[in-house]
Design a protein that fits this description.
Helices cover 84% and strands 0% of the residues. With 308 residues, the chain is mainly alpha-helical. The longest helix is centred in the C-terminal third of the chain and has 28 residues.
Length: 308
Amino acid sequence: MDGDRLHEEGVALLAEGRRRIGTRSLEQAIETFERALAAGRSSPLDTARTRSELGQALGVLGQRKGDEDLLERAADTLRSALEALDGEGQDDAARARAWNALATVQLTLGRRRQDKTLLKQASESYKQVLGIWTRERDPQAWAAAMDSLGIALRLLGEQRKGPRTLEQSVAALRSALAERTRERDAQAWAETQNNLGAALHRLGERTRDADALLAAIEAYRKALQEWTRARAPMTWAMTFANLCAARKALAEVTGDVQQVRIALSGFREVAAVFRDASHPQYYELLTEQIALARKLEAALSSEVARTG
């Protein structure tokens, strides 16, 4: 059938669109999948697979363009596909891809809108993925989904009171690192270490827990073993800025003036990178952090002088 041939063409275009910068291949994939659906597929399950691939293409294009209408359309299309895929229960690979794409769209929209409902939906969708991509069946896909679940839980935890959701985020990310080792995939390992650092950072601030903040600093340090200033200067700068922020938070909890002095020196180093790279928005944020760190240093130094 023409629909079957068009589906295969769309799959190839989507794969090309994921690899390449720009949107042309993704737009062509969407058009091709729509033509495949109009022409008809060989079975209802095949139709659901095409609808799933269409939803994935819409999701990638929506993320690339920052287009919320496309993202909403992607979510609707993926949910429609999953009604059939989950009902059939015959194609775990297609189900996992559809759930993972839906979760990513929900996470993207939830992050953009700071929407707790969407972030919770993303967390639940990633749990659906983890029910299919188990550690035993596909360790690397499982670890990637666990990493994404950790991100969704951190963002959700930042908007909730109490530490529980942030603790769940930390647990998910530590689980991901059981498979995402530096030896297997250094970049994926660094990404998860950075995500773990962010979750521990937020948890430490929420609970005023020095141990969590020290663990956050260590996780950021590990990420920076791969994201060096020479290899990836902007990624290094943003991660190092977060490490310095964790040091500042640790100083606030412990009263350790040396920690804030180290943080202040790091903030100044990063600010210079952002200034030289012509990133005024990041430079402005760093100058604010420098001012706050200087104020904290003065307060802690005064306290040391008063009690010393």
